[in-house]
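Running low. Any example?
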Amino acid sequence: MSVTRIAHRYAQALLDLSIEQNVVDKVNADMVQLSNVCKESKDFANLLSSPVVDANKKSEIFTAIFESKVEKMSLEFMNLVLKNSRENVLPQIANGFVSLYKKKNNILDVTVISATTLDKATKDIIIAKIKASFDGTIDLIEKVDASLIGGFIVRIDDKQIDASVASQLSNLKNILLN
């Protein structure tokens, strides 16, 4: 079975259980935290993939790190994943859970990449344009990339709107060369 399929099944099971236990928002915050730890800490990622450290030791480490910071059900779930020797899939499970949570709650991730930090008025205009065609909450993720020269790129799911100066210059260059 593929890693993606395994991660999805675990994430779906955790979502169903957290809804049943009425702690879905807390578990979502825990999975966001776990996902961030996996991304930011190379040592933690190495721990997850290490065959040298046995499951009991990993469970002790998880308890020490997360016991006071996460919902009890989240910690028990992490320990279950460790017990089943699926700890290498834990980052994908956490990301999968967050995606399922956002889909269930009608939250859309919108990434805006701009040459400089956008002011509030510009952000509001972008959000208003997106809300015109989407019913739900918009989670705006901002990134700055000076190589765009000016303008911005908006990414929604697998769609992209490129209104950057760098892109326009590249298109103009292609037109002039052909």
